[in-house]
Amino acid sequence: MFNRQPKQEKIIAEYVMQNKESFYRLAYSYVQNRDDALDIVQDSIQKAITAGTLKDIQAVKSWFYRIVVNTSLDFLRRRKKVTVLDDTTIQLHSPSHEDHYHDMDLEQALNSLPIQYRSVVVLRYFEDLKIEDVAEILELNINTAKTRLYKALKILRDQMNDLHLEEVRHNG
């Protein structure tokens, strides 16, 4: 259990503390509940401290993101609820974050995406991670991550177009 060097533990703790808002935002994007997101981050920290699975200290970013994603998915499996993104709350907890979309149609479209597509979109665009990092965090081949992102964007585009056409018909 204590096979990790104290220096490595310190690096992990510092990294997590410096980026706790991002991890909270990520967890919240999965569960849409403040308390549950905080619990997920706390559980993730506990798992990171006790896991001893970090082989390369340079990979701490993707390693801890993976822990948060997996802990969030485990939580959702246990609770059987899958919802993503409450933009107002995300912005409240991240004043430095510059995304200001207030498009309820987009939020609904994101919520309707299957989890494997939603995860790629959230990590790539809301956490602003490179596709290589997304693939590593989700333990996917990079081509699989690119394909899922492409499919997710196509689904979102189609849904947004359908909503727009329906709105034009309704208002026209």
From TrEMBL:
The keyword Cell membrane does not apply. Residues 104-155 form the RNA polymerase sigma factor 70 region 4 type domain. Belongs to the sigma-70 factor family. ECF subfamily. One of its GO terms (biological process) is DNA-templated transcription initiation. This is RNA polymerase sigma factor SigV. InterPro entries: RNA_pol_sigma-70-like, RNA_pol_sigma-70_dom, RNA_pol_sigma70_r2, RNA_pol_sigma70_r4_t2, RNA_pol_sigma_r2, RNA_pol_sigma_r3/r4-like, WH-like_DNA-bd_sf. The gene is sigV. Keywords: Sigma factor, Transcription, Transcription regulation. Pfam families: Sigma70_r2, Sigma70_r4_2. It comes from Ornithinibacillus bavariensis. One of its GO terms (molecular function) is DNA binding. Residues 16-81 form the RNA polymerase sigma-70 region domain.
